[in-house]
UniProtKB/TrEMBL annotation:
<keyword id="KW-0548">Nucleotidyltransferase</keyword>
<dbReference type="GO" id="GO:0006261">
    <property type="term" value="P:DNA-templated DNA replication"/>
</dbReference>
<dbReference type="InterPro" id="IPR027417">
    <property type="entry name" value="P-loop_NTPase"/>
</dbReference>
<dbReference type="GO" id="GO:0003887">
    <property type="term" value="F:DNA-directed DNA polymerase activity"/>
</dbReference>
<keyword id="KW-0239">DNA-directed DNA polymerase</keyword>
<dbReference type="Pfam" id="PF09115">
    <property type="entry name" value="DNApol3-delta_C"/>
</dbReference>
<dbReference type="InterPro" id="IPR050238">
    <property type="entry name" value="DNA_Rep/Repair_Clamp_Loader"/>
</dbReference>
<protein>
    <recommendedName>
        <fullName>DNA polymerase III subunit delta'</fullName>
        <ecNumber>2.7.7.7</ecNumber>
    </recommendedName>
</protein>
<dbReference type="InterPro" id="IPR004622">
    <property type="entry name" value="DNA_pol_HolB"/>
</dbReference>
<keyword id="KW-0235">DNA replication</keyword>
<dbReference type="GO" id="GO:0009360">
    <property type="term" value="C:DNA polymerase III complex"/>
</dbReference>
<feature type="domain" description="DNA polymerase III delta subunit C-terminal">
    <location>
        <begin position="242"/>
        <end position="328"/>
    </location>
</feature>
<dbReference type="InterPro" id="IPR015199">
    <property type="entry name" value="DNA_pol_III_delta_C"/>
</dbReference>
<dbReference type="Pfam" id="PF13177">
    <property type="entry name" value="DNA_pol3_delta2"/>
</dbReference>
<keyword id="KW-0808">Transferase</keyword>
<dbReference type="GO" id="GO:0008408">
    <property type="term" value="F:3'-5' exonuclease activity"/>
</dbReference>
<dbReference type="GO" id="GO:0003677">
    <property type="term" value="F:DNA binding"/>
</dbReference>
Length: 329
């Protein structure tokens, strides 16, 4: 479905109004810095903004989505819109030099030029300094849109030359409703809003076999901790570790385990509407009978400690073995 400004107002009301006013009054700045957490819609907002700048057919604030300009932007091949993403781990000086070279040419469709730099905090020092020179000599018809999750990692001189636009985290309820409109069940939508606040990522995860298997392994581990604790070390070695191979995957597995024990807390407190693993009501009831409220909150602390140890590069298998011993009563 084509994004319009009404959608953006629903997600980012303050930001949406600011940019819409700029477009209406033809007071578009030469440089913007959109900063906010992953999934807040920075890239979507940048593309909609670019489309509104280039669309010659729009009669309202919204681009028409049908003209040549709109279609080219959506397909990623508009000659006067340049998008820079990291080349490997960083954005390099050569990428900014190439951008500058492209901008020396007259616009093919009009005199307007827009460039979007995604993950702008990943610019090398040389790239940042080169971009700074570019920003210091703004063209009347050029609009720069920089996107970042961490504006503090960027040169203060770059920040000072941009209009700073802060995007707020998405409202989980809005995300849950959007996911249900995309066909997810209420239970799955609720789980996904706890894992990510990015709509696209949530939809992808809901269809991902690896993630589905992760959920099963978490439920199996919890049941084993209750009923077959002697077999837990073998389970960790033969099933858990081969599935959660990377540290980031292991962190995700621990996030799911954390949600399970939070659900036990909600069960103890008789807060059914807050339960995420709603499809496992009987198993949660059983777990709540097995782990007292105090033991459950202790387990939450153990899981948080395990997540910290993973960040400190402690051996993953040791972390899991210690955690499962702590959780066993």
């Amino acid at each position: 479905m084509d994004t319009v400004w009404a959608d953006m107002l629903e997600k980012q009301s303050v930001v949406g109004k600011m940019i819409m006013n700029s477009i209406k009054k033809s007071r578009i700045s030469h440089a913007y810095l959109f900063h906010g957490d992953k999934g807040t819609g920075k890239y979507e907002l940048a593309l909609l903004f670019a489309m509104s700048i280039f669309c010659k057919e729009r009669t309202t604030i919204d681009p028409c989505h049908q003209c040549t300009d709109c279609r080219r932007i959506k397909s990623g091949n508009h000659p006067d819109l340049h998008i820079i993403i990291p080349d490997g781990a960083s954005i390099k000086k050569e990428q900014i030099l190439h951008l500058q070279k492209e901008f020396t040419y007259t616009g093919l469709e009009s005199n307007k030029k827009v460039y979007i730099i995604s993950q702008a905090e990943k610019m090398t020092d040389n790239a940042s300094n080169r971009l700074l020179k570019f920003l210091e000599e703004p063209s009347q018809q050029t609009t720069a849109i920089l996107l970042t999750e961490n504006s503090h990692a960027m040169l203060s001189t770059i920040r000072s030359r941009c209009q700073m636009i802060a995007l707020k985290p998405l409202n989980p309820k809005q995300l849950e409703q959007s996911l249900q409109r995309e066909g997810l069940t209420e239970a799955n939508a609720r789980l996904m809003t706890q894992i990510t606040n990015n709509l696209t990522e949530a939809i992808e995860k809901s269809k991902d076999n690896w993630f589905a298997q992760s959920r099963k392994l978490v439920v199996q581990l919890v049941e084993m901790l209750q009923h077959n604790s002697d077999e837990v070390p073998i389970f960790v070695h033969t099933q858990w570790m081969p599935h959660f191979k990377e540290r980031t995957q292991l962190q995700e597995g621990l996030d799911l385990l954390l949600l399970w024990f939070r659900d036990i807390v909600h069960y103890h407190l008789d807060e059914p509407s807050a339960i995420v693993f709603a499809n496992h009501h009987n198993k949660l009831e059983e777990a709540a009978m097995y782990w007292s409220m105090k033991h459950t909150t202790d387990n939450l602390q153990y899981i948080m400690d395990a997540k910290r140890k993973l960040e400190q590069n402690v051996h993953p298998q040791l972390v899991l073995e210690q955690l499962t011993l702590q959780i066993q009563r």
